[in-house]
UniProtKB/TrEMBL annotation, chain A:
Compositionally biased tracts (Acidic residues): 344-353
Subcellular location: Cytoplasm, Cytoskeleton, Flagellum axoneme
The keyword Coiled coil belongs to this UniProt entry's keyword annotation: yes
Regions crossing the membrane: none
Region (Disordered): 37-58, 281-353
Name listed for the protein in its UniProt record: Radial spoke head 3
Keywords: Cell projection, Cilium, Coiled coil, Cytoplasm, Cytoskeleton, Flagellum, Phosphoprotein
Biased composition regions of type Basic and acidic residues, renumbered to the chain: 45-58, 317-326
Family: Belongs to the flagellar radial spoke RSP3 family.
TrEMBL record, chain B:
Name of this protein: Radial spoke head 14 homolog
Coiled coil: none
Organism field: Columba livia
Domain of life, per lineage: Eukaryota
Residues making up the signal peptide according to the UniProt record: none
Amino acid sequence: MYDRRVVRGNTYALQVIPACTHPDPLEIQRQRETRRRALARKRTKEQEQSRTPEPVEGREHVCVQTELYLEEISDWVIGIDTECQTDAFLDRPPTPLFIPAKTGKDVATQIEEGELFDFDIEVKPILEVLVGKTVEQALLEVMEEEELARLWAHQCAYAELRNAELAEVQRLEEQDRRYREEKERRKRQHKELLQKQKETTEKIAARAFAKRYLADLIPSVFNNLHESGFFYDPIERDIETEFLPWLMTEVEETLERKVLGRTMLDSLIRTVVEKRLDAFSSQPSFDQTEEPAEEPKPTDIEPQVAIETDADDQPVTEEKETEKLVAEAQRPRRISFMLHDSDQAETEDLETE
Amino acid sequence: MAHARISANLPPNIDPTKAPIAFGRRGLPKLNEELQSPELLTQQRALMALCDLVHDPEKVYQMVEIGFLDNLKTLLRHHDSTIRQKTTEVLYIMAMHSVGRQGLIQNGVISALAELLDDPVDICRKNTHQTFEMMAKLPEGAVDILRAGLIPFLVLKLKTEPDEIQELILDTLSNCLRVEASEALANDAVTILKEKLTHPSVAIRSKAAWVLLEIGTHPEGKNTICEEVTPVLVSLLEDADPEVQASATGALMFATVKPQGRFSALGAGAIPPLLKLVAEETSKARLSAIKTLTMLAEVPEGRRTLLGHTDTFQQCLNDPSEAVKRAAQIAIRVIQWKPF
């Protein structure tokens, strides 16, 4: 750094500083004027010269001159090399003991044994505290261990008890389960037994009842069958089915023959009577005898029926029959009746024959 | 610049592996921040300091309140084994306090710990199993473990892990299976436990028998045990160690509730060793033995055999324990019961 006050470099090459420090007023004035002129010249020069661009907003161009602070870098300072060497170490003698001069008074004091304090008495409380604390700590540790051991033993005993109780509970549970199952089984067995018994009694009762109910089944069945004709006497059946129809047909045939005969006879008689009528028509008095003969016929029939039942009056009946036969064509209803009567007569005839 | 340290020699009681703990209430929050720092050394030192602090229940409560457990859960998956080991140790010590246990359940730490079951480092796994064991002692903890579906993994691990970890697993299983046994049965736990019953180590034998006991409290478990395990349990009754005898008797007690169990126990000749156990005044298995004999007395052959031994039960009536007296009375009543 350049300090104007400090002289650098050659002192004898430098200019002599003026001795007087108070400059003349004239000199000062002249200096001022020259400065002013220089400034004016500078300004004109600046104005003529092309200026540097205008400063940016907010900034200001400032002229700076480092003249005052210029340093000649190439200034070679004159230097001289010199060497120096100290002598080899010499043994220094020890410094003598510094004993200051004695001033003041000499006074001596001495602490005899037993004057300051009694070690044995004083050490007791300290020792007591030390030993006491150590023992207390040791006791604490031992107590802790003992407590832990006691707790552990207590826990073991408790665990044992707990296990024993648990086992007892489970044993009783098991026992209870067994008893219950046994009870259930027995109850079931007993129920089955009762069920079976009930069934057996019901079966017996049903059997007895059925037996009694069906006791007269067979006779009633046989009765019913018998009544409905399932058990028939074969001969009787035979007679009924074959013999009697044959008999009836034969009887019918015989009766038909009889009827035929009678019809023949009727027609014969009719023709005869007609012939006679014709023959006797010349004599009309016989008509009246015939008509009354016809009228009492309905009344005659009843007594005739009564009479005809007699088997002894056969010829009489024959006569009556012939009289009836005259009026047959007009009274068909009576014919059948008469036929019936004649049938009966015929059967009687047949029987007598 | 002035340092807080005056001399280059550290004071004699400082452990350089631990982070310095701030005073009073500021201690744990500062450790919390240090745990989240990206630098490994800081995290390790913070964890070491935490392990010491966590023995105090008040600190545990404060930790749960501040929300340490989320950070610890993240750290469980760290690649550095020291960090994992220390984190699991912290969680284990927390689980020893009741507040800590509650906090662990609420923050779902158990499922996060489940990932560490396959950790290559032994000590991490051991701490994990210790934590599970502690949690399983609490009923909600046991339910949580069951719900996280850890039982199949634990049963599988029984085959592969070293002995001390197996003991921890057996303890965890016994506490969890007390609640529900179906998952374990589905994973064929009974076969594995049957092998363990003949293990040379006493602790493993007794704990395996205890797990079988817990399985036997459930009906479906009883069926499996009756079929396969009863003869082995009967042989364990004559084991030298009283713990093993006690657990085996307990397991038999539950196995003989069902009729098939009773028959298989009788067939294996369970009555003489049980009578011996009852006769001993100071055996732990006395109560269980009396109960088992009560179960066996409900079977006709058992009753016949036991009718000759009722004086043993009479002696039990003088036992100081109330439960034993009651059990002996019940036993005498069952033995002398007649159907008519």
